[in-house]
Amino acid sequence: MSLFLTLIFLTNVPSFAQQTALKLTLEEVVNLAREQSIAGKQAATLKKTNYWKYRSFLADFKPQLSLDGSLPSFTRSFIQVQQPDGTIAFQPVSLNNSLLNLSLSQNIPQTGGSIYVQQQLQRFDNFLNRSTLYNGIPFAFGISQPLFRFNQMKWDRRIEPLRYAESNQQYIEAMEQVALDATGLYFDLLVAQVNLQIAETNRANNDTLYTIAKHKLEIGKISRNDLLQLQLSVLNARKDLASARQSAEVASLKLRSYINTQTTTTGQVRSFELVIPDQVRSFEVDLQQALTEAFANRSDAIGFQRRRLEADRDVEKARKENGINATLNADFGLTNRGSRPIDVYIQPQDRQSVILQFTVPIMTWGRAQARTETARANQQLVVQTLEQARRTFEQQIYTQVTLLDMLRQQVKLTTEADQIAQVRYQIAQERFRLSDLTVTDLGIATQDKDRARRDAILALRDYWQSYYTLRLLTLYDFDTNQKLQGA
């Protein structure tokens, strides 16, 4: 953007922004939005939540040490006891049956089972006959292993890291979306401020020209019809000024609310004075590099892999859960009892337990096949959906790369047009003062001048929104040739 355009704008600051106005550039607004906006804070909170979820997932595959039991476990009551002749007698009991169990367990992702070692001590007190007995397991080793069953842990180890990586990239995308939204609000206010500056200038110029026109009417150099046309222009300029001021205040409120900057340190509401970006980035974007970076960095690309794995997982789950299911539980160790705690550890005896539980479906009326085929159909649907999403994504990248280059040229052309229109308007004003230009021609020059100024600002807006959109789509900064990183 030319220095000429910037100087004209800054020397005509709207009246509402002259008192303690906060001067901001586009980059400063984007940084404020990333740091202070509610959307930015929500993205940071979600990132932290996903981090701790992943930490919890990793902890499930580490050894788990736990202590459980019941201490005390006191009972005082009457219980029914069946006698040899079949009758029931209610006998009083007063007892304590406490238990402590210390175990160390470890999941086995490769097989879907788990192993553990444990130590257990049990104490039984009969307060009626004043006796105490101890029972315990000095050491035991056990394993629980599903057979022919779906292994959830194996798939989780493949899917959850992708989900976590996807969430990290989603955070970067969220921050880039904040930048894009802030850019839109920035230019909404900038356009409103430029419109307000135009309206104020037009109102002042029309007042001046109307005064000159009244003098010309007195000396017979213009018609009364031309004077009435200028008078109408004065009224329209005042109406446009009121509308532009209201639009600027609304746009300022929206931007202030988004970047979460409401008041100054003294509690006063502070208006914004936005700086027109004076240049555009001159980097070139290679389409193939943009596609490569997008599929390497975007959460969507990671999501494609995750969803494909989830579809494969669901097929295996449907197939295995519809067949033979079995679980082997085995326990080997030592055990003993006695009247003292130390007796449990003196010459303990062997302890073994082996249990095989199984389920064999015999007649399901085609339910197993239906579930498996449904999972396979869903798998095919996922593959087709992902392929379509991939192609759409590639089209978005291609469109944005070509659009950015076109908009860069558009900014240059509209800037030159704005310079020409401003100079032409100045010439038109001088010619009108010298009675060498009609009111109609002056009105055309005014409209061209205003249109050129707005087109220049709108071209800047389109360029910068396209710039941040490309960053969002690729998570790559082509200006510095660096991947975008999360804070």
Automatic annotation (TrEMBL):
UniProt keyword Signal present: yes
Principal place of residence: membrane
Family under the similarity heading: Belongs to the outer membrane factor (OMF) (TC 1.B.17) family.
Protein keywords: Cell outer membrane, Membrane, Signal, Transmembrane, Transmembrane beta strand, Transport
Stored PANTHER family: OUTER MEMBRANE PROTEIN TOLC
Protein name, entry field: TolC family protein
Transport as UniProt keyword: yes
Stretch forming the signal peptide: 1-17
SUPFAM superfamilies (UniProt xref): Outer membrane efflux proteins (OEP)
InterPro entries per UniProt: OMP_efflux, TolC-like
Localization of this protein: Cell outer membrane
